[in-house]
Design a protein that fits this description.
Layout lengths: L4 E3 H13 L9 H13 L5 E3 L5 H29 L3 H14 L1
Antiparallel strand pairs: 1-2
Helix pairs in contact: 1-2, 1-3, 2-3
The protein binds zinc ion (ZN).
The site of zinc ion has 6 residues, from helix 2.
C-alpha cells in the first residue's frame, strides 16, 4: 500500500451516505448513488492522507466530527439535485433502445 493516498473526505461522504440513504426519498441505484457522492465531493474540500500512516480510522473519526454538518448539507443538496434530474433513466432508455435495435 506504499505511496497510496486516501481522501478522507471521500471515505466520510461515502459512509455518511450509506448511513442516511435509507431515510432519504431518492433513487438508490448505483448510478444515482455515485452521482450524489460526486456532487457532494465537488463541493467539499478534499483531505488526503497517506495510506501507510497508521490510525486511519481514528483520523477519519476526528475528521468526521469536524465536518459532519458540512458533509450532511452537501449530501442533502446532492440528493435534491440528482433526484431532480437522475441520469439513470436516460441510460435505461438508451439501453432499451439498443436492445430493440440490435
Ligand atoms: Zn437511480
Amino acid at each position: 500500500m506504499d505511496g497510496l493516498f486516501i481522501n478522507l473526505m471521500e471515505a466520510l461522504v461515502e459512509s455518511k451516505l450509506d448511513e442516511i440513504i435509507d431515510t432519504l426519498d431518492c433513487c438508490k441505484c448505483e448510478r444515482c448513488r455515485r452521482d450524489i457522492i460526486a456532487y457532494a465531493l465537488n463541493h467539499l474540500p478534499s483531505k488526503y492522507v497517506t495510506s501507510e500512516s497508521g490510525m486511519l480510522f481514528a483520523k477519519l473519526e476526528f475528521f468526521s466530527l469536524q465536518h459532519e454538518a458540512n458533509v450532511m448539507t452537501q449530501l442533502l443538496r446532492a440528493v435534491e439535485i440528482v433526484s431532480r434530474s437522475p441520469r439513470h433513466e436516460e441510460n435505461m432508455k438508451k439501453s432499451e433502445r439498443e436492445r430493440i435495435t440490435f
